[in-house]
């Protein structure tokens, strides 16, 4: 068989081969003669070797063992064998699958599909199952003249289609080049990747999910051959003898090939290209001088005049994917930068021996007001691309010159007596058998005081107390009352369309026709126009009835507040000091008004209950849309995005009770433990229910009874009876489940309870559910994830359905909304090279692999133990440990103790996992192997309960790291899973996995501490649990090691103990580096946009105080950056060539123009590769910058920090310091110990009255990355 003209052979990294010539068969099959012209640009040796003019050659990447086998005919296949890239055979044949195992050769024939697993990395901290080398490159149906040339692969695609010779794929997909359409092949890419979700933290990329598929050319013409002037031939691939790595033949050798890149490639056959050590071709001499005349993108190693690993100079072509390693990296990297502290007094301050300095609260530095900085300019680096974004232009051509703002007050009407205009009625009276006193008025509506229908209440009511101040009315009620006022008194508004925000602000496009600019409306009835008819007087002998009040009514007071000029928007475009917020708020309220009348409002989102998806546990998923007005670069925009949330399904309350108690039916529930009762009270907290035994308004739940219905005794007119007996006597209702507790729908105050049986309650419709568990989250992700194109179409459809074109309120305020997506400019920045001890790699698509790479600083584990808290055999455990020890050795983590001490739960029946861990720790202490270093816990599943118990024990009691392993992963013992575990263990034991080749702006030139801070608030429905504050800080020049400080605090957005936490972290930095930080970069997460100014003032002053707590004269410059993932900007590449294989925005894409405020220093950055659904960028806002960093430096630093995340081989979605702070806060929530409830006088569990004790992190872990 002959092979025509080199259909684009694969080579090692990009797929090379030539456009003409002799060898050109793809996979270096030396036993078969090729056909075609001479001088094909054969393989050669990557580092020189033979010149390979079409002969066999040795090929260190295709030959002896480096990347395949002897001759690439199967066996140790070039992309099969150890490389798990599919395992194909250039001669043809059967599939031959690889399942991403380490030693699976996949000899099969014909190219195989190259399957591979992906796995994931758990955000909770310890679960991982990523693949060791999941490249799945495969060959697909043979090579050369046969079909394929690329093969199906996780990143690559369905092989290459036609090339110049037969069907041999010359280019394939090539994940760095998108669809390589200039020379053969390049069908769709598919699969692979990881999943980086902040709220759950799973990463589905495994160990090496590169999966590139058909290795077509990096640009258009393969790996280095194929110049228009003959290609290959004389110098072919350009080995050592030709003084360069990337030239190769002809006049321009390798037109845009590997070594040249840029405009003309090597020009002189690589004379100054990548080269090794010959002449000026790189290495340690001059780094390639100019990287090959005009190519090489400043050579390989960066810099301007050489560089440590070659390179220097030039502009143009890209850099290669792999290069030399950095060796072992110990220390902080600042040893040769700056001077250590010599003054003994200052040393005492920075070692902590001098103690904490007292700081005067009146110090001027602590009173300073910090101004929000302006944008210093735009970023410059990277490739320019165009994006469509989910923003829609808003014109104000016909807007009124002024908008009039009114203040609205809503109050309850005074209680109507029996002789009110509704007459003596009794619709809301107590049951005559209960003999209750008339209730006091003016209570909180949430506590159901206006219409209190206490089914069981003690007749011996406590003495009357002074009236407490009224609490604010719920927002939903205020909105309904204002809408009712607009309907009832429509004529009073003179036909002017007014809008309101549902609370206290009302806006009008013209002055309302009132003489005094104020008006009071009485008897506003939000429940309907018809009063309850009067009731007949009680019969003789009956207990006296309290007269009905009729329907609840309110008083609405409206008065003029201010006049707002719409011209302030135009003034703001040229003058950033103009306050534009009043007009923006007015226009936003006007744009949202119609939607708020028609749909359910949750924050800035609108939902319709017409289309729902049922979830387990009495919940349902509902779709809607987000809408907000934004000011951008000299224009006004409306942001519209798809939204989804969970509501309680309007079903029996029992549907919520059963899952909260993990019960299948009500009959399975018996006496509740205190913990179960507390959990149930928390699950039902504030859910509104409607009693089913009589018509009544909805009521909120405040807790549950300590006793079941048949044991909760109350006194009714001197007679004691249970609640169950009362309902049978009064309503002839015999409870089916009298053994269940009751719900309190009265008040959380003792003595004011109002009990209802659970089985007589239905959940009121339209209630958002904030209590979401892991199963809910997984299902929500499955239901709501949309590919970019589908989400884009959904957003456009939502804009059409919103009816902005026919919205009378928009028209009244002169607004017109465009119907097409905005288009804006973006840039794609280059990723950094990730360095290991023995090799470096340029990530592709935000990911790289760990195969054959060793940690830059490997830890040593001498004394560790295993606790088996799952149904798994000891034989499986031993097999897993062998694989783990073997993988650790290959990765640079030394496990000296290959037979750790093991404790199995079967040995101690009934013992909890915490007890087993304590026993294991004591056994480790007794061994003669040094202090205990780690306990590995094998769990049955991923349940949060046991996980929190394990982490609380290891982090606060034992003081050593723990590593959780799920039993199914022990049984499978996949090498890739073991490799991911090694990543975490090495960091927990104070090792370093990798560092970046490129210097980090500012950080690499002077001692700089990078701080991440976050406050994690309890979710709605979690009661009065405290917030958790977390602050982490870097300890070296590489942003590789961090330490954390955590604390519990009352609910607050600012970090209350920040000065003390920061002081600890600054001293830890000094201890690690022997240097004082000269610069501070502060990434702050967990702040909403409306809090920016207040947080800046509070926490900049906290930073200043921390500096003074160390030393009087210490005051380094600070750059303060807000990190925000909770936004609704989504971008879609205008050109498919600029997207990844799933249509998502590629990592490194930054948007800092068009849709952002031209004055504010902010930008959107895509730091990761989207795996499921549509990628979400992170929004960064620089609030204060004393370091005077350029926009380019801030963006590049932030992007590159995403590649320092230590527990996976993927870049993450937002800056690593903020990510670490988030993880540390989530871990510290496990340190909360819930105390006993403050039970009420009638023995109830109040869901918001629990006490919590926060256990401090063990001192031995304070300088350890326990949270990783």
UniProtKB/TrEMBL annotation:
InterPro entries linked: ArgoL1 (IPR014811), ArgoL2 (IPR032472), Argonaute_Mid_dom (IPR032473), Argonaute_N (IPR032474), PAZ_dom (IPR003100), PAZ_dom_sf (IPR036085), Piwi (IPR003165), Piwi_ago-like (IPR045246)
Comp. bias (Low complexity): 52-61
Compositionally biased spans, kind Gly residues: 1-19, 34-47, 107-117, 139-151, 183-194, 223-236, 245-263, 298-330
Alphabetized GO MF terms: RNA binding
Biased composition (Basic and acidic residues): 20-31, 62-94, 195-222, 264-297, 345-360, 428-455, 463-472
Segments forming domain Piwi: 933-1233
Domain PAZ: 652-765
Span list, region Disordered: 1-361, 415-472, 522-548
Feature: compositional bias, Pro residues: 528-539
Pfam families (UniProt xref): ArgoL1 (PF08699), ArgoL2 (PF16488), ArgoMid (PF16487), ArgoN (PF16486), PAZ (PF02170), Piwi (PF02171)
PANTHER family named in the record: EUKARYOTIC TRANSLATION INITIATION FACTOR 2C (PTHR22891)
Family to which this protein belongs: Belongs to the argonaute family.
Full protein name: Piwi domain-containing protein
